[in-house]
Amino acid sequence: MKNQQSGFTLIELIIVIVILGILAAFALPRFADLSGDARRATIDGVAGSMRSASAIAHSAQLAAGAGPDDAVTLEGEVIPMVNGYPSLDGIMTAAQISGESLDISKAGTVTIEGKASCNVVYKQATTTTTAPTVTVASSGC
């Protein structure tokens, strides 16, 4: 009788391992840059929080009939206002921005630690007819 071979030979096993290694080498760069994508998503989230908090605080001030520089209270927190919108200090409180990887400045700038060109800058309203601006710089994330 003939002996029937079952399983793989050593050469076939080595070829499969080499092919898997080549595929992994092509896939690795795609997964290696996920931290940059995560930092960009964090900065975009912070910018969205600032825009939303600014609009909510402005709406609360209008609903209360307060003056353009009168503070408003949101969820028990006093938000300083300038020209009807949160001040530089107030936006951080209103947007409830915090995090251990964020460098939060009281001047309205939030930066990812160690990445100076990955930040969000809030510029407060200069008049009662113009809304504040939120600028995102994510090229260095």
Described by strand count, sense and barrel closure, the largest sheet is:
4 strands, antiparallel
How much helix, percentage-wise, in residues? 40-55%
Instruction: Report, as a whole number of angstroms, the end-to-end distance.
Output: 68 Å
Total of domains: 1
Structural category is alpha+beta
The 3D shape can be described as rod-shaped
Order of helices and strands: HHEEEEHEEEE
Enumerate the spans where pLDDT stays under 50 for 5 or more consecutive residues.
Answer: none
Overall mean pLDDT: 86
Strand content: 15-25%
Radius of gyration: 26 Å
Number of helices: 3
In total, the number of strands is 8
Strand order of the biggest β-sheet: 5-6-7-8
Structure, described:
- This protein is an alpha+beta fold and 141 residues long.
- The protein has one domain.
- It has three helices and eight strands, in the order H-H-E-E-E-E-H-E-E-E-E.
- It has helices spanning 10-32, 34-64, 88-94, and strands at 72-74, 77-79, 81-82, 85-86, 102-104, 109-112, 115-123, 133-137.
- Strands 5-6-7-8 form a four-stranded antiparallel sheet. It has a two-stranded antiparallel ribbon with strand order 1-2. A two-stranded antiparallel ribbon has the order 3-4.
